[in-house]
Amino acid sequence: MARLVGNAVIGQSGGPTCVINRSLVACVEELRKAKQVTGIYGARHGVEGILCEQFVDMKGQSTAALAKLLDTPSAMLGSSRKKPKPADCARIFEVFKKHNVRYFFYIGGGDSAQTANIINELARGEGYEFRTFHIPKTIDNDLLINDHTPGYGTAARFVASAFMGDDLDNRSLKGIKIDVVMGRHAGYLTAASVLGKLEEDSGPHLVYCPERVFRFEQFIDDVDRVYRRLGRCIVAASEGIAVGPNEEDLITTEAGEVLLRDEVREELPKDAFGHAQLSGTGILADYLVYRARKALEPKHGKLRLRGDTFGYLQRSFPGVMSEVDAREATQVGRLAAKYALSSDVDGSVIIKRKKGKSYAVEYDWKPLSEVAMGEKGMPDDFINKAGNYPTQKFIDYARPLIGKMPKTGLLMAKPVKKK
Amino acid sequence: MARLVGNAVIGQSGGPTCVINRSLVACVEELRKAKQVTGIYGARHGVEGILCEQFVDMKGQSTAALAKLLDTPSAMLGSSRKKPKPADCARIFEVFKKHNVRYFFYIGGGDSAQTANIINELARGEGYEFRTFHIPKTIDNDLLINDHTPGYGTAARFVASAFMGDDLDNRSLKGIKIDVVMGRHAGYLTAASVLGKLEEDSGPHLVYCPERVFRFEQFIDDVDRVYRRLGRCIVAASEGIAVGPNEEDLITTEAGEVLLRDEVREELPKDAFGHAQLSGTGILADYLVYRARKALEPKHGKLRLRGDTFGYLQRSFPGVMSEVDAREATQVGRLAAKYALSSDVDGSVIIKRKKGKSYAVEYDWKPLSEVAMGEKGMPDDFINKAGNYPTQKFIDYARPLIGKMPKTGLLMAKPVKKK
Which of A103, B249, B266, B338 is least enclosed by beta carbons within 10 angstroms? Predict the structure, then answer.
């Protein structure tokens, strides 16, 4: 092939992750080596920046300046939730032509692959020589074709650590604790709650993912059973159980906001509205706490019931990076540049897991359209029959992705005889 | 003095921290060296375990088994919120006499010092030879006399890290973000939100502590001003602003639950009840978001407004320990044993800061009654006049306590000229 000479644009899209800047830096470093890449433009806030020509010069960045970004969470170029309309895509393509952009890299999830695909199709249609590569990223781990996605391992490590700590806290002061985890349609992150367990009886004891129907009756029975056995119970609930296959009491608006159904709201005692433990929060966590309290206190008496929602910390907390995730985020960024520079193809970088006992991956690429086609939930055999806990198969799958966990342990001590 | 021969009891009390087991292990290790200590009993769940003679053998623990606890968050013996009544204290003293307990160590905050003091006074009253030492612990940093308290440094490091990440996240996807931080009466932990700032314009931009009157009007004006300047705004609000000197809309029950005043609840549009962003949570965070939205959207149009409540992660998240905090938690545990074994005194171990440019501390002890007398908020000159940000004096005070932060950086890149 003839070398395609021109500028490169790189952008970041969707929810930030802790390793997305690894992909950015690796891609830029690789592009800087290529003579045919005349300029490297970072798009501010993804397609929004492209639409109004807000680019920053990434070619002029020193290696030292870029190195500072390696362990920095968030999308350093700025991110965007915008899903460009056809007219936007045409405008983007105009901007690219005006700036002689011949290489376009977009780091993001399925939506970003779709955007990249549309722009790429426009270029093809006009016979404009142009290379597009999508670089995979999402903490939800819901990207098609990929074994897993950069960003997930570190977020999963945060969630596993959070539950490890929460279990220890709950052993100190016993009670029922309900924690809500990110992941609207896929339960991968919620299921990661079990990866930091120190022993069989460690929490979370119950895990509810959006792939399965959530029923309040079962939830109450489950919590009751665990509480009777252990005198405590920790629940991991995906925020997505409210938008999953069953939505008993919660509904989701088109804007993605979660509401209580009117009937439910009216049924709540006046108290429960303004009424929450200071450390227990979030409408879903609060509501699960409320339902559990209403059902279980008549049987057990006053319960120590709390709810927490882990929120944005799951995707942004610095200093808890999975080394596996960091390495792979670097690789997909580097390979996107390599593929685009060395061959006549457009696509998305893909992570495949090698068969074998020890964890290893290989990389490949697939056409943009294949990755952009949708998103995937967890396979059926990653969740147990009862729909309240991940299977060993999930654990085997996810454990290698989160890296080495902090070393912690439990006290094993003999009781002293009473007198 | 004659060597006092007998058993020792050690217990943990109040909210767990990430370094409280350091104090436990250090105290036990020191006691194991002393021949006059015949047995070392860990009390399960503090005074609750003592009341029903639930002790575990700590003398039989191997050094390797104890070492596993060093980096393990939570109160490994189990903790307790119980404030013993006079009858309980008498019962505790009976149990101690029955088991020939001559040394009592209680790791906790001001309440624990008070409990230790009452039991100690009982022993004195009966002429029972008995040594009591309180070992300081609290993430709230509100213990009297001490420069600071073990547990605070690590919790402050978590909060500083969380805001560092949240600021980076908020740069990626701009908006107004309100984060609620633990600390019902003291603002130390909330003020720690500023310790991870990467530059002047980093969040949090506004910090509200319970030591100052919280006024919604000022809050709205403050947020509006920052948002106009930066196009984004991050707020750190102490959960304690609801129980602080001013309680406009929120009230706290004796049980410590926070309620919205009835008038406010009625004023809220129906929507706002069941209505929350999935990642924005907690009655206080949600309510601050609601107030900001109501006041600011008429001026600015639709805003990206979110709230998070950091919850129990602040005191239990593993792997982010401050090395300074860990060292000091070890020292206070060790010294409590040393003081009790080598002298005729009862008291609480105290941390004092040495004068001088570089950070250094020295240890001492004070009578139990002095530490048990109450709790302290932040000094007036740790908060600015406007009551919406910590001063440099606070930063100088707190910065050495949180240890070395993760290395992160911002992208500094020149804009590319538009065409």
Answer: B266
Catalytic residue among A57, A88, A111, A140: A140
Cα A399 to Cα A96, A190, A387, A393, B36, distances in angstroms: 42, 13, 20, 10, 48
Q: List, in sequence order, every beta strand (DSSP E) within A163-249.
A: 176-181, 206-208, 233-238
One domain, residues B129 and B68: yes
Euclidean distance between CA atoms A185 and A144, whole angstroms: 13
Q: Are residues A196 and A168 in the same domain?
A: yes
d(CA A32, CA A23): 14
Q: Which among B171, B283, B415 has CB closest to A276?
A: B283
Do A219 and A121 sit in the same domain of this protein?
A: no
C-alpha B32/C-alpha B26 separation (Å) is 10
What integer pLDDT is reported at residue B284 of this predicted model? 77
Nearest Cα of chain A lies from the Cα of B222 at a distance, in angstroms, of 23
pLDDT band at A277 (very low <50, low <70, confident <90, very high): very low
Q: Which of B16, B71, B161 sits opposite A408 (nearest CB)?
A: B71
Domain for residue B141, yes or no?
yes
Q: How distant is the Cα of A346 from the closest Cα of chain B, in angstroms?
A: 26
Integer Cα distance of A376 and B353 in angstroms: 55
Cα–Cα distance measured from residue B407 to residue A375, given in angstroms and rounded to the nearest whole number:
34
Q: Which of residues 204-243 of A touch B (CB under 8 A)?
A: 239, 242
CA B370 to chain centre: 20
Query: Between vectors from CA B14 to CA B11 and to CA B15, what angle results, nearest 5°?
Result: 120
A140 is catalytic: yes
Question: Domain holding A312: CATH number?
Answer: 3.40.50.460
User: Domain check: are A230 and A326 in the same one?
Assistant: no
Angle made by CA atoms B1, B100, B346, in degrees to the nearest 5: 45
Residue A138: domain span: 6-151+321-374
In this structure, is residue B415 part of a structural domain?
Answer: no
Report the number of distinct structural domains present in chain A: 2
A215 plus A77 within the same structural domain: no
Asked if A259 lies within 8 A of B275 by C-beta distance, the reply is yes
B236 and B385 part of one domain: yes
**ipTM of the predicted assembly exceeds 0.95:** no
A164 and A119: one domain?
Answer: no
- Shared domain for A36 and A130, answered yes or no, is yes
Count interface pairs A-B at CB distance under 8 A: 321
Residue A258 confidence (pLDDT) above 90: no
Select from A271, A317, A412 the Cβ nearest to the Cβ of B161: A317
Chain A contacts in chain B segment 267-326 (CB below 8 A): 270-271, 273-286, 306, 308-313, 315-320
Q: Which residues contact A349 (CB under 8 A, 6 or more apart)?
A: A133, A134, A135, A136, A332, A335, A336, A339, A363, A364, A365
Average pLDDT taken over every residue of chain B:
89
Number of helices and strands (H, E) in chain B? 15, 13
Annotated catalytic residue: which of B57, B71, B111, B140? Answer: B140
Rounded to an integer, what distance in angstroms lies between the CA atom of residue B116 and that of residue A198? 33
Q: Is pLDDT at B111 greater than 60 in this prediction? A: yes
Closest residue by Cα to residue B306 from B229, B184, B203: B203
Domain of B12, CATH number, reads 3.40.50.450
Contact B296, B140 (CB under 8 A): no
Maximum average pLDDT range among A179-183, B246-250, B267-271, B314-318 = B314-318
Could you tell me the two tokens for A326? 């960091």
Q: What is the largest CA-CA distance in chain A?
A: 90
What Rg, from alpha-carbon coordinates, does chain B have?
A: 24
Cβ B354 vs Cβ B360: under 8 Å: yes
The pLDDT tens digits of the residues spanning B193-222 come to: 999 999 999 999 999 998 888 888 899 999
- Asked if A168 and B318 come within 8 Å (Cβ–Cβ), the reply is yes
Residue tagged 């300046």 (tokens): A65
Q: Most B CBs within 10 Å: which of A99, A278, A323, A408, as the mutation test of the B interface? A: A278
